[in-house]
Amino acid sequence: METLEIKPVKTGADLRKFFNLPGKLYKDDPAYVEPLRMDLKKMFNKKKDPFYKHGDAQSYLAYRGKKVVGSIVAIENTAYNEYQKSKTGFFASFECIDDPEAAGKLLKTAESWLKERRLTQVIGPLSFSTENISPGILIKGFEYPPYLLTAHALPYYAALVEGAGHKKAMDTVS
User: Fold this and answer.
1) End-to-end CA separation in angstroms for the chain
2) What region, left, alpha or beta, does residue 114 occupy, with left being phi > 0 and alpha being psi -120 to 50 degrees?
3) Alpha carbons 32 and 147: distance in angstroms, whole number
4) Of 60, 150, 152, 159, which sits 20 to 30 A from 139 (CA to CA)?
5) pLDDT at res. 16
6) Domain coordinates of the chain in residue numbers?
7) How many Cα atoms within 13 Å fall on the side-chain side of residue 46?
8) What would the pLDDT profile of 100-126 be if each residue is shown by its tens digit?
9) How far apart are CA 67 and CA 99, in angstroms?
């Protein structure tokens, strides 16, 4: 098996790889609905998205050799932590092939970024805002397209995240 490497997203080319990964992973999933590229570009633009006035984020890609096999974003939401009087960090945009090593290293890398900011609790996957757009991991109903503000995932995602040491906080129903 080729070497696994986790790299921060730094360039426009990296960001395109980040945006293109879900389409590759879900190519055979008729229920997958790709997000609008213009919305993604705005959300990941630190000069245009208002989130970055009260928070920060770092995106990462996992590579096996030269192939992108996973992605994640580590998020610090200062406004959330001030309001909740907490030290909570978040992860989002978790996408990965069925590879426990890649998933584990992506999650550990995000956790390390959050620890550097003295955040002691990790919640995810969530989106950048405190509105929690597309929260959680889908655990059944994979054959249905997502409803507004609901997550869609590949059937093995829950096992990857739990296998990396994360525990489910709650169930939601849509």
Assistant:
1) 39
2) alpha
3) 11
4) 60
5) 96
6) 4-163
7) 12
8) 999 999 999 999 999 999 999 999 887
9) 13
- Cα–Cα distance for residue pair 107/115, rounded to 1 Å: 12
- The answer to whether the peptide bond before residue 125 is cis (omega within 30 degrees of 0) is yes
Pairing mode of beta strands 55-64, 4-8: antiparallel
115-to-16, 76, 89, 101 alpha-carbon distances in Å: 27, 10, 9, 21
pLDDT in tens, 121-168: 999 887 654 444 556 766 666 676 666 666 777 788 888 988 888 787
Cβ 58 vs Cβ 15: under 8 Å: no
DSSP letter string over 131-150? T-SS-S---S-TTSPPPTT-
- Cα-flanking dihedrals φ and ψ of residue 18, to 5°? -60, -50
Q: Specify the amino acid at residue 61.
A: L
160 in helix, strand or coil? helix
pTM recorded for the entire structure: 0.89
The pLDDT of 34-63, averaged and rounded, is 89
Q: Which two tokens mark 155? A: 């059937």
Element (H, E) at 42: helix 37-43
Amino acid at 123: I
Q: How far apart are CA 49 and CA 61, in angstroms?
A: 21
Given a contact cutoff of 8 angstroms between Cβ atoms, the answer to whether 141 and 31 are in contact is no
